[in-house]
């Protein structure tokens, strides 16, 4: 997956520029005040520092919608241009007003980066390492601050430091970022699919995944265009086709799904089991518990948790069966022929789609991805020829992570995607059917078969053949609708073109229950993060380290007070880097929710120690040691959890169609709260004192822990489209709980 890693590192350079800018202005403002005589004009001094914040807030109001319209890559290119032009303006700035203009342009670049880099990385990263790659912006941002503080500190030792050079040198890394965005970064494959540019999306995915066969993920990206439909949770028993036999506990044959492997003769059968899956049972149990506890614990949290609790230690994609699940899923029966919809035959919007050949056989293991038997319904449908329905031609089996085989319909995190045709009779005897999309996920460990029925995991029997028990999210595919069968404008056999699915009212999509629930989680995390005390601790750090004797030590070395403050800030930033590196490793192992729940208590304890040390009279050395240790612990555990996790979660929980605008809403919340906290801190320090401020921050951290425990689900290792599907299911469960 080196392609995805390199792309994420290149995109995260934008956050390095953000951190660089934040640190540079902190040092440069000391010399700006002297040149423009702003000692008696604190409002202008504050405006120079805050202009970047104002610019970021303004650009965020429209960045998400424009990114959904024009794409992620053009907006990243624009951010690099704004960084570059802003740095040149600041390098020139003959007066304070031109400097303000440069700071505003720089703020526009910051706003675009903060909004778009998490989106871009989430949409290009594989689920297994998405948390790690999305922690990179936190690491590069802190790294940029450290490098900038070191640069400014070095310049401050010169006889006549130039603040213009401090600010203007940003044009060098911004130029590097520009070349990376133009010549190296591809467009997001999910955005390309949403616009119907299938061939481009396929090529990008092949580059990002370092393999040719990306049919499974291509299918997933298409399915991600639809959301908000009726989704059910079912259970399937999967085993060799010649071993799984009829049984009263297993549904009838017409509901089975054949899974063809890439190797000759390798065929598996998935059959729905009556009674519901462990996932569905746990989700219903969670919904019941929520009702009993006054709806405090969100059913969504229980639903997501059931996936991770039942995931095998080795992961379903590396189990005895799932690596061999191939790239063809079909309903049982003999299909005489197929009508392919190959993405290579797709043309631009508004053009005619050529008819497809139909000479593939189901006996050929390199046949199309989806097929189904002819039903009595489709004989009367004008746009479906008798035979089979298929889409997305696949390639040969490829090797996944760690060199193990991965089925071409693997979509990451142990999930597989499949489709089936269902048919039933209504009260009048008329037959009606539906095309269903299935996300399969293994539960527990491979089991064994005994007699005529496979034994459940954990059974004491031994048998002849292995099987897996899988939960499934079943819903209507994004491109298929029963209504489309009677309309003229279809692509292939009764399929809607992907670009058609994104047409409609954005505001209508934002009112979807799943989207509203995700917005509640995302906005809530951004508000609580900003009020958890990071700005106050950063403000107080130089004073704490001064009390610890660092200032005296530096002055004895002949370093001025202004240079000493810059060096102290550099040391503070440097402490964060190892902690962020640890977070990068743990984000996909422990998970986002687990990291938040384990690191927030450390933040609370650190803040309480700072409160006590400022209220209780104690020896100055003891006070300095306690304060220093508390600050260091606070920084380290903040950047491990509450620093990166909110942005990571916000980039994961929204559907593709509204991801840009939803993350823009979360980012706008972030900037507004940042402004409130920054400008209220001096007032609070005067009114309630330092101990009162830290006590207030500790209370907010307590509220944050409760919020995460009750409302924030665990999303590690799950494909983005599956996450949004779970939000839709969880939102309906929550509404049902309120109704009951």
TrEMBL record:
Pfam families: Sugar_tr. InterPro entries: MFS_dom (IPR020846), MFS_sugar_transport-like (IPR005828), MFS_trans_sf (IPR036259), Myo-inositol_Transporter (IPR050814), Sugar/inositol_transpt (IPR003663), Sugar_transporter_CS (IPR005829). It catalyses: D-glucose(out) + H(+)(in) = D-glucose(in) + H(+)(out); sucrose(out) + H(+)(in) = sucrose(in) + H(+)(out). It comes from the Eukaryota. Keywords: Membrane, Phosphoprotein, Sugar transport, Transmembrane, Transmembrane helix, Transport, Vacuole. It is found in: Vacuole membrane. Residues 340-363 have a biased composition (Acidic residues). It is a multi-pass membrane protein. The keyword Glycoprotein does not apply. Residues 7-716 form the Major facilitator superfamily (MFS) profile domain. One of its GO terms (cellular component) is plant-type vacuole membrane. The chain crosses the membrane at residues 43-63, 75-94, 100-121, 133-157, 163-185, 561-583, 595-615, 621-640, 661-681, 687-710. Its main location: membrane. Residues 332-376 are annotated as: Disordered. Belongs to the major facilitator superfamily. Sugar transporter (TC 2.A.1.1) family. PANTHER family: PROTON MYO-INOSITOL COTRANSPORTER, SUGAR TRANSPORTER. This is Monosaccharide-sensing protein 2. It comes from Cardamine amara subsp. amara.
